[in-house]
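Memo to structure team: turn this sequence into structure tokens by end of day. - J.P.
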Amino acid sequence: MRELNINEMKECKGGEALTLAAVMAVMVIAIVVVMCYRFFASPEGQISLPGGYEFEWGNK
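Reply from structure team:
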């Protein structure tokens, strides 16, 4: 591996990782919002989460 010269350093652009992280964060937030909406808006239902957690609610 060699050091970059001044011209090569000027051509390097950053921000791809930041953009990817921002897009992934928005996607995760959107998925969680939909899950919470479905959880609170449904009159009855059941949900199973990883780790063996299971929840049931409503009139059964």
